[in-house]
Amino acid sequence: MKRKTTYPLPLNSFIVILLLACFSMNAQEQSFATTILNQENVDNANLSVNEDLTDFAEVRANSGTLFFGAYDGVLELAYGELLPANTTSYIKIETEDDLLPSLLGGSLGNLLADVLGIVLIGNQEFTVKALNGNTTVLSAVSSDPNTFSGARTQIVTDAQGDYYIALTPDQPYSSIEITNSIGSLIGLNQERSLKVYGAFYGADAPICNTPSFTSFDGTGLNLDLINLGGAGVTNIENAIDGDPTTFSELSLGVLSIAATIEQEIYFQNTTQPTEDFKIRLAVDPSLLALGVANNIQFEAYNGTNLVATRDLGSLLNLELINLLQSNNPVDIGFDVSAPVDRIVVSYSSLLNTSLSQRLDLYDVSVTPAIPEIAAASKNITLCENSTADLTATTDATNSQINWYDAEQGGTLLATVDSGEAFTTPSLTESTTFYAAATANGCTVASVRTAVLVTINPTPRASDILVAGFDSAICLPEVLEIVPSSTISNNFKYYFDPNKNVEITNGLTADGIIYAINDSKLEITGLNEANNPDNIFISTIEPATGCENSPGDLRQVSIILANTPNISINLTENITADDVINSIEQNNDITISGVVTGDAQENDEVTITVNNTNYTALLDATLSFATDILGAELVLDADSTIDASITVVGTLCTATAIDSEAYTVDINSPTTPTVNPQVTNDTTPLITGTGDSDDELTVIVNGVTYTEGDGNLTDNGDDTWSLQIPDGSELPDGTYDVDASVEDTVGNIASDITTDELVIDATAPTTPTVAAQTTNDTTPLITGTADSDDGLTVIVNGVTYTEGDGNLTDNGDDTWSLQIPDGNVLPDGTYDVDASVEDAVGNTASDTTIDELVIDAAAPTTPTVTAQTTNDTTPLITGTADSDDELTVIVNGVTYTEGDGNLTDNGDDTWSLEIPDGNEIPDGTYDVDASVEDTVGNTASDATTAELVIDATAPTTPTITEQTTNDTTPLITGTADSDDELTVIVNGVTYTESDGNLTDNGDDTWSLQIPDGSEISDGTYDVDASLEDTVGNIASDTTTDELVIDATAPTTPTVDPQTTNDTTPLITGTADSDDELTVIANGVTYTEGDSNLIDNGDDTWSLQIPDGSELPDGTYDVDASVEDAVGNTASDTTIDELVIDSASPTTPTVVPQTTNDTTPLITGTADSDDELTVIVNGVTYTEGDGNLIDNGDDTFSLQIPDGSEY
């Protein structure tokens, strides 16, 4: 029944007092049972399948009277599909007797009934079943509360206090059957009704998945604990009402024994793996101190399968513990990574405590996955007045991230998409932010994930000290600002207090230069009109990097006092060319200049040279001058004159300075040089070195040459050359060449060498060549030449020089030349040209010619006539010049002219008769014929292996045996391809190249018996014989190598059959000596494939395998055999196999609703088939007088009297 008000139980029996919340159950995606399969004693049955849970069908039951029997009410509701196992169906019901509040407590049902005064057995009772066809897969009965205490059958309630049966069968099912009945304790003619509003299961997951139902259970409890101890669950619906301020109370009272109380929360739609749970609860702080957190358990189920479990203690952090200790409710995140459709919250008792034990359960919510803080957002440390970008993500799709300032409650700061950054406000202290995930369009957020942003303090203006700027200062050349701080020595400088314009090292602004050295600021270029007025300074804390905030910088004010204005300028050139030379260094040099500005006559100017100060007084025109010895200027290290003047004002003193650089050049020019030479040229080219910047003069043999005179040339690279002109020829002799230079300031230098030039024009001693005649084509040639001169010898166009490895100066005024290999001289007469050159280039050549004669012509090369023979003492012949002496070597034996074997025929031919006793065995022999002419030149024949002795019979040919059905077979065998082959078959002779017999070239042969020479069945001797090139003969040694068998094998047969087996066994006959192949439905089966078997008795069988099933039809089974020689035969029958496995036409029954208890039932069925109809357990067959085949594929069944229903 639907509970309308709170039950008036005794004060100590508050177990099921339910305070109803005024709201509607959140809409969920539901799939309803929409078909009534069976109804008995049901009013308005159709209202139970109209998908409206406010309408109901009324299932009636009556206890009966003395005049009519009792009856039950039955209503079976069917889904439009077979539901998978573990699908939970919810059936909304209401009983007339108040049964459901007790059953809501599961295994506590009997105890609760006793407390509430409800009789579960004997009054109104109901049974619920889940069916698959006629098979019951799950059932429960109200008279046994234990049947509603398991995970698969439970009574649950929604937030409005309506009751439902929750069924979760472990098998597929398609309908729900509810039976309303009356027990034996009620009186006669008592009627009870059971309202059925509908049955449904959760279908597609909704966007916002909220809890739909709840129930409770317990263990270790008894009647006294419930009735007296206050154990149980109060206001159970508050845990699913969506109100975070209301709660159900799970209580164990004051216990000293182990017991558990639990509340189950049901979601009619299964959650997604990317969703988590948020459980809002509160506990007594006193219990928390005793460790109750570990006794509070959260379990997540998918149907009856436990997928996750955690205790409260493992999910708490310090902040949550503090909230619980303050007696506040907290939100606990329960992370579950698998689909879930129910949550169980259980409380196990603490032992040995006198405290009342209870748990307040506010809500169990489905939320998007608890956010993860991005790695970049963790451990952020910032400086004061900074903002942070925080990013969190959730695995759930279509979700957003809410950012809060507290773990519970607090202020919603921002809502961003998952993965989008949230920018915090400007922070002045370390702050923790909290991220919670929400699904778009849903109000429930996940538990919050904390992220800490650490804020470091920033330095203050008061942390920076700067001394020396409390009053006006004189204008310095470089103004230094030197700050100090106990925080850091790292400073930054700005033009404004808000740090908008920073002063950087090297910055130039308005003509002022700023430099930062060792953290101090140096300012150059200040004047009264050009002054930054204020400089602002910040410092940086080294550990945190934090810097003063804008507006909190140390200010330095620059106030300049009046300073005298003065300048000094030295005269630029201290000499005419501003260079001090060696003459000027010994004289006084006047140093002068002028001063402008606030100076006066007689003010003193200080001039510094070589670290010595000289003074000069200003005249009326403010000019000054003083004389300084040139030597002092030469000794000055940087060749710079420094002048300064200081003027004292009222408050400040001004100093002006100037510098003037000059050049010192007192060094002599680079000493010139003259390159010594010995030459036979009387007008030689003389060279040397000299600085090209200096002026050069050269004197030779009393003649002076100067640059630009057409003879003496400055090459521009510090070298010079002097060409002695025609008309100034120098006789043989030794000469001093005098070279001198003068630089631009008159310094002079001369070369320090003498006698650099020697003239020698006398020719050397004439060389000679020793004449010779030789047959050596690389002869040694000799002669004489002055060993002091350079020798060159030319032979046959090739020039040889001393030191080339061929021409040698023997050091005793003789020489020798070895003509090298590679420069061989052909026969002929040669002029050997020997010439010498002395040290100065004078030359002389030998005066003889044709000193060398070469005669090295070899005799005519003999030849040997090649031959192959089987004669072991053959006659060998060849050619040779009859004027030369001949020698022939054969098989290691030397034969010479006149020995009685080797004969010179006198016509430039020869013959050698191998004598008896020198027989030559089989083999290949080199015949070596050589001649020698009268001068000892020799020649040998250029051929080898001219003689082959072969007296061995050829290799015996072979024939490959074969048995074949081919009357013109291909016959093969082996034979030496170098020999001539003949084959005789069936009296016919075949020879190589006749178009039939082929030498394959690899010592094998093949003979194709031609058409017209067919060979009939029989056995034949194939005679193969061959002859080698010297006439040796060999024949094969085998016989009867060829058998012709062309008779077809026995024809196989196939046994015809008709069968409904789609993998039939097919049989037949075939000669077991032959190879069998069977083709069925395009699939070829062969012996040994495990399907086709030769039975060994000239029969066979083929088992069509699974996977090759034959559809209905007629099939030709093709059986063929092949004998050992390839003769084939196939069966002569066709269409031997017929497959017929088609089911008959499915019969139909015309549905009807009637009040006739013996109705006429009709339908359709193939009149060719045999029909059977079963109604209410009674079987009817054709011809029984009730079931009639109408002959037109329809039937009719008349339920007979006596079988009413």
Short description:
The chain is mainly β and 1205 residues long. The chain is built from six helices and 110 strands. The radius of gyration is 66 Å and the shape is flat.
Give me some keywords for this one.
single chain, 1205 residues, mainly beta, Jelly Rolls, Immunoglobulin-like, 11 domains, seven-stranded antiparallel beta sheet, five-stranded antiparallel beta sheet, 110 strands, 3% helix, flat, disordered N terminus
The total of helices stands at 6
Computed structural class: mainly beta
Principal-axes shape call: flat
Quote the distance from N terminus to C terminus. Answer: 32 Å
Q: Unreliable segments (pLDDT under 50, ≥5 consecutive)? A: 1-28
Tally of separate domains: 11
At the fourth level of CATH, the homologous superfamily of the largest domain is: Galactose-binding domain-like
The amount of helix comes to: under 10%
What's the main sheet like? 7 strands, antiparallel
Q: What does the average pLDDT come to? A: 88
CATH-derived topology of the largest domain = Jelly Rolls
Task: Specify the oligomeric state.
Answer: single chain
- Tell me the Rg in angstroms: 66 Å
User: Would you state the CATH class of the largest domain?
Assistant: Mainly Beta
**Beta-strand residue fraction:** 35-45%
What is the strand tally?
Answer: 110
